[in-house]
Amino acid sequence: MSERVDPPLRATEAETLVAFLDYHRDTFRAKVSGVDPAGLAATVGPSTMTLGGMMKHLTLVEASWFSRVYLGGELGEPWDSVDWKDDPDWEWRTGSTDPSADLFAAYDAAVGLARSQVATALADGGLDSLSARPSRTDDAPFSLRWILLHMLEEYARHNGHADLLRESVDGTVGE
Asked: According to the lineage, what is the superkingdom (predicted)?
């Protein structure tokens, strides 16, 4: 697994949130690095969750929260062509069979774009800046702070899943 940079012990709130999110992104990237296509499609027990599906899901999550919700844009392809009502777990299902090079390229591009979008948002309005799209539940916008914390929660959950899946694939364990 690759080296990660520990978040700073003393920094601003924004620097701390971004550093922890990058730490979790790097943790996930390390957990999927070096896994062959069969490993990306492997499951544990009765679960259908795979590392490939998780990578595609996190690619969608990055684009959804930063490009779509925060900035108000569209997701683009391949997401816009999906019939989400008929196949709500499309990214999980197809991620287990997509070519690994495509999965890694899409994930890395989505993370790179999200990092740039967050840096711009922090420079323009800070953590209190509001999303272009509102919440579905109360029609209120999200703060950038809320989105960053939600992304931390998303990665923390899936890094735990990735631990189990990676260990089942080749015995690799880690933080």
From this structure: Bacteria
